[in-house]
Amino acid sequence: MKRKIVFLALMLMPFAYAQEIKQVPQITVSGEGKVKVTPDQATISVSVETKGNVAKDVKKENDTKIDAVLKLIKKMNFASSDFRTQRVSLNPQYDYEKKKTSYNATQTIEIIVRDLNKYDELMDGLVNQGINRIDNVIFQSSKLADYESEARKLAMKEAKHKAEDYVSVLGQKVGKAMTISDNTQSYSPQPVYARFKTMSLAESDAAPRETLAAGEITITANVSVNFILE
């Protein structure tokens, strides 16, 4: 009989503990932190696209232009880790009306521009060396981790301030945080590329020297915090 009583008591303990937890006054709030910064670097993707009727000739022409592009980048003292071949392709294109196959070769280079003062010079040089497609320009900050940390702290402060606003009229105080959920979405800088895709050599020659408007980027953090009320 004693064993049955002990077993029953042990079975009831988790339920009693759960009821005790549920009775603790709590409040759950969200907080958002935003930090606006001026970008100090950019990542650009540029391509050389060539077309022709003979595959090997098209590829050779493309390789020659890419070679000139890479030499220019090295001449401008970009670190080897700041540029790379992103994509290489050679595709047949069949014209059903002319019953003829042509070829399209494309090579894409990704370049990190850590000094935005070099941007205009680099772009002019790339176009002069054969770049005929600028796919995108993404503005970034070299201190992204620091700004993300600042945004998280601001989000937590806002969450606590919001909780204090809610409970102040009830004569209660905000206690310790029970749970913290990071709801921040991965930071993804917005690309700028629409007006560059169709830029020809003639258009680049006619363009003003100052062609970059980096503006600001916003680093955002979102949290959800569950506080105990005292």
TrEMBL record:
Domain of life, per lineage: Bacteria
Gene3D superfamilies linked to this entry: Protein of unknown function (DUF541), domain 1, Protein of unknown function (DUF541), domain 2
Transmembrane segments: none
Database matches in InterPro entries: 26kDa_periplasmic_antigen, SIMPL/DUF541
Signal peptide: 1-18
Keywords, in A-Z order: Signal
Entry protein name: SIMPL domain-containing protein
Native organism: Flavobacterium flavipallidum
Lineage: Bacteria, Pseudomonadati, Bacteroidota, Flavobacteriia, Flavobacteriales
